[in-house]
Amino acid sequence: MRVAERYEPTVEADAEExxxxxxxxxxxGGLIGWLGETDHKKIxxxxxxxxxxxxxxxxxxxxxMRFQLARPxxxxxxxxxxxxxxxxxGSTMMFLFAVPIMEAVAMYMVPLMIGARAMAFPRLNAYSWxxxxxxxxxxxxxxxxxxxxxxxxxxxxxxxxxxFAPGKRVDIWAQVVTFTELAALAAAVxxxxxxxxxxxxxxxxxxxxxxxxxxxxxxxxxxxxxPSVMAASxxxxxxxxxxxxxFNPAExxxxxxxxxxxxxxxxxxxxxxxxxxxxxVSTIVAAFTRRKVFGYTAMVLSLVSTGFIxxxxxxxxxFATGLPQLGQSFFTAASMMIAIPSGVxxxxxxxxxxxxxxxxxxxxxxxxxxxxxxxxxxxxxxMLASVPLDVQVHDTFFVVAHFHYVLIGGAxxxxxxxxxxxxxxxxxxxLSERLGKWSFWITFLGFNLTFFPMHILGLDxxxxxxxxxxxETGWGDLNLLATAGALVMALGLLLYLINVVSSxxxxxxxxxxxWGGEGLEWSVSSPPPDYNFQHLPTVRSxxxxxxxxxxxxxxxxxRSDRREVLVTRLIDAEPDHRETLPDHAMSPLAxxxxxxxxxxxxxxxxxxxxIGIIITGIALIGWFWPRDESRELLEEQP
Amino acid sequence: MRDLHSALDAAGPxxxxxxxxxxxxxxxxxxxxxxxxxxxxxxxxxxxxEELRRVDGGERSLTRAVGxxxxxxxIILIGLLIASxxxxxxxxxQPPSDALTIEVVGHQWWWEINYEDPVPSRxxxxxxxxxxxxxxxxxxxxxxxDVIHSFWVPSLxxxxxxxxxxxxxxxxxxxxxxxxxxxxxxxCGAQHANMHLLVVAEPPAAFEAWRQAQLQPAPPPATxxxxxxxxxxxxxxxxxxxxxxxxxxxxxxxxxxxHMASRRTLAAGTLPNTKGYxxxxxLDPQTQKPGSKMPPVAMKSEDLEALLSYLESLR
Lengths: 638, 315
Fold this sequence. Notes:
The structure holds two protein chains of two kinds. By secondary structure, chain A is an all-alpha fold. Chain A is 65% helix and 2% strand. Chain A has a two-stranded antiparallel ribbon with strand order 1-2. In chain A, a hairpin with a 6-residue loop joins strand 3 and strand 4. Helices cover 39% and strands 20% of the residues of chain B. In chain B, strand 1 (100-107) and strand 2 form a beta hairpin. In chain B, helix 1 (13-45) runs antiparallel to helix 2 and helix 4 (224-235) crosses helix 8 (301-312). Chain B is elongated. The chains are: A mainly alpha, B alpha+beta.
């Protein structure tokens, strides 16, 4: 293994190497091949499609709620169904759409952006997706059997405790949360290992694309935040299943403990969704202004500091609980402070737009829409950081408006832009720009029509999570407007979907680099070959496609007859050693089924837990069974 | 009188201070938004000249602009923080010592209201409707015995969660007469939507008259029909849950009915308190408020007529 000064292969050798790589990295056919898939791009593709299916389901639930609230005293849904629907909407969007979609896009793009052939733990990706599908399937299976959870996506105790929520609804919710966060953790560990150790030679941390930085920060946040909610949901399951009293005030438990554990996860969760979107915005801004994003160091520091401060805000969800004032002031200050790194990034993007040559293609339109909506959401966030204002608008439609501005504006708009931008890389075809512009403007208009009136409703005293309201409250007209807006927004999103579906089949061929992008992902074919890079690139710039000449050295000497990857050092990405990755494997599916059976089983009996440990253990033995290559590799590189 | 429920139509000192703070935040944030939007549009649309693309000089002025904008943001945030904390200290302070004390207890899905007094005979209970004298501070002690509710009267003050195991205290005051709505502000189960209370602020004399009336036991039945209604009430399961002071009915599970006819709404703001709605509510509460803890009560129509006549007399 060496970094060649000058690599001049013969045409024949090159073609033979490509043939071997194709053979080594290709997917196996048939159902068995499909189930045992470990290619990060294929798993990520499934992840993305699954997440968008859940997005559509969550959106339909939102539409149901908007129809119910369009008029006072509507009889469309009773409280039982409505409470299930709003719980499903929140749980779906947070646990089954927002976090998974960001991880999925990262799973697809990060190895291509850092010049790697695969992710560090290919089978862990597959396991993550299977867990996610089992968790989401469980939630929706329960919902369609009328045992959908009905205590809100936050499931406050004691309402969700055994006394006030009999039946299995909350148990299912708790297990789905634990299970899908397990999937998130698996993906996050994989991202960190991949980003730290698989970067192409020369891509030091200081040359890493901003999107990759954002994913790195997000993955660390997941590792610190998710265990908190998994602990909470497991304690809740214990309270319900074996009558522990962690949250039962009558027996010395504490109802506030739940809120601390939940929001210690719940607030970072918002940034887990939002930070990848910031990386997407930076990528799009650079590509469509034809210049690198202004202020790389400031951008990276902003991402990292957002990751840290994001863990110091959770109490602003609890200002109405009557905590001591001094403590509240600290959280007010922290909640306001986090506006600064967000502000720095917005200023840097504006500076980039100012000094670049912006082309108003749909991805950039989505980014401009993002800035408009997100700044409003950020400013109402500053209002919510203030204790006196918060105790007025907390748990009202003002908050509903605020976090939809932050999450749809801050995450979905950049995501739609990023999908538009990377769709040609993933499928080889371009989306229609004309349809893209239409879908942007209609979605943007519909979004603001839907959610802006909710600010006013909240200030006028309309609480959240109510299935009906009386006409004399005067909330009817603005609610009707919001429902009309939701229909407009749905039309915009439908156009986007139509664009994706029709372009996937009939879109114009994109070629390798339709946008003239700056990152390594544009140096490979569209869609990328199974092995990503025939020759691993080397990097000496933050924008390798723009600033490196055609004579940039490549890495040679990796074996093509097995799945060999190059491991580099953490800080400076100097080549360190080679590693062989496992290929096709059924063990992730087996372990996912074993853990799935355990998680579903404990809803009904505590015995599922010891039995589950045994079957999961057996499945894990299969996972860790030594491979032949390991022995071979040990002999080569003792 | 139409009830009021807007945080931007304050009728008391705390809500008033918060409203002032709101307008400070509103105008500052609106200005910031406008400036960001102008900068964004200018960045996209401004006319570009070739000489502007000299990289070094451009970068330095951009750094200055971004640094300046960040510094201004930080200064604005510190200003807002100071305004917020000082308002917070004012509105979340201890209640004045001459305050009238009321206990608010949250139940699924109604509000128990207990008027406290050092003299035991001057204490009484009511439900879903709080009367207060204008201009006098009211200490509100809050607790919940089942799930978390939140006490919130937007015209008077921000909310305070009622968390089982965490009794709490806040205070409020009305500076003008009016009827102010207070919807439960923490999701508390099936009928969270139909859990409202009303705060009736009235001149001190009117309040005193109301209090004197509430302190009395229920008026005895005055007509044969009311007498029959009284008997019907006691013979049905009603007394298991409801109290009527001065009668054997002493249940504490549902609202105190001693002076129920004096209240404006039924079932915590679900229905207007009229004879027709009351009859419908007693016969079939689950249609009006599905999930309510009140079971349907079947009876002959003459009995219902008598019962309504009796309940309507509980002023």
